Recover the amino acids of this structure.
């Protein structure tokens, strides 16, 4: 029996699909970096998908024909991506960010939400947020709503397990980064003050991003927490650079490492979002 809530969910998801449908032609070429260059994220994702298909086949969860079909999709995606010009890859990233910003301004009917004020001081994190989080947010609720209609039971369990594992690893990584940065700052600041050195305490007066969003799930809320926590880590980096504790080049490497760590989760979420939209449009 179809309830009013179910009808509202389907209608809202269809509305979402209209907004994101044009990304289908770009999905197979979605790179995992904010500036359009390939940092290897897509290739790593494709290798994971290829390995997952083989694992499911060995465990008897899918047939050999289905496994070969999935591998063929991976091969086709890899080929189309490699044939793209760098400027085309950059255009795809820009367009995805534009659509992500549009999604942020739209409410999803029938969804229970938690409003969250998100502030990111640092410019390098804003593109990361705009490129991935809106899709991660929509994906998380649509996986709950339509995951069973999109994946076989075993496949759905695999997808959900991946997201939990990947996000947990990312949270642990950022926790460690912040803990180490705060400890180093505390130690070196105490040493400088003991020697009566000048200690600068820089702050960001104009945040890169400051808005309120509607989170649809604990998953997307946790992703916001990761971004906010690494932003705090970058505050510590600012202090270190200002006071000559660490070099800016060294800090750039740390930030790039975080971006490389975040991108695979964002890319997998985005591709899952598109797959779920295919199901929604068929309802």
């Amino acid at each position: 029996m179809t309830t009013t809530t179910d009808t509202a969910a389907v209608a809202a998801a269809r509305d979402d699909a209209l907004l994101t449908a044009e990304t289908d032609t770009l999905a197979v070429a979605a790179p995992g970096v904010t500036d359009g260059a390939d940092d290897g994220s897509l290739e790593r994702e494709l290798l994971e998908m290829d390995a997952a298909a083989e694992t499911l086949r060995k465990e008897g969860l899918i047939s050999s024909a289905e496994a070969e079909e999935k591998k063929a999709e991976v091969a086709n995606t890899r080929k189309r991506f490699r044939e793209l010009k760098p400027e085309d890859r950059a255009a795809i990233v820009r367009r995805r960010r534009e659509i992500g910003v549009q999604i942020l301004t739209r409410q999803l009917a029938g969804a229970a939400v938690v409003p969250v004020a998100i502030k990111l001081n640092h410019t390098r994190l804003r593109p990361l947020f705009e490129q991935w989080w809106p899709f991660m947010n929509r994906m998380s609720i649509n996986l709950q709503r339509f995951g069973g209609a999109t994946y076989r039971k075993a496949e759905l369990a695999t997808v959900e397990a991946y997201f939990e594992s990947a996000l947990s690893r990312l949270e642990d990584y950022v926790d460690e980064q912040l803990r180490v940065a705060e400890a180093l700052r505390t130690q070196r600041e105490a040493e400088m003050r003991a020697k009566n050195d000048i200690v600068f305490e820089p702050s960001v007066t104009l945040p890169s991003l400051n808005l309120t969003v509607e989170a649809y799930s604990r998953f997307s809320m946790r992703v916001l927490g990761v971004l906010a926590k690494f932003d705090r880590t970058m505050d510590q980096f600012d202090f270190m650079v200002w006071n000559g504790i660490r070099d800016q080049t060294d800090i750039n490497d740390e930030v790039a490492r975080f971006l490389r760590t975040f991108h695979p989760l964002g890319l997998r979420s985005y591709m899952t979002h598109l797959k779920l939209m295919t199901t929604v449009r068929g309802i």
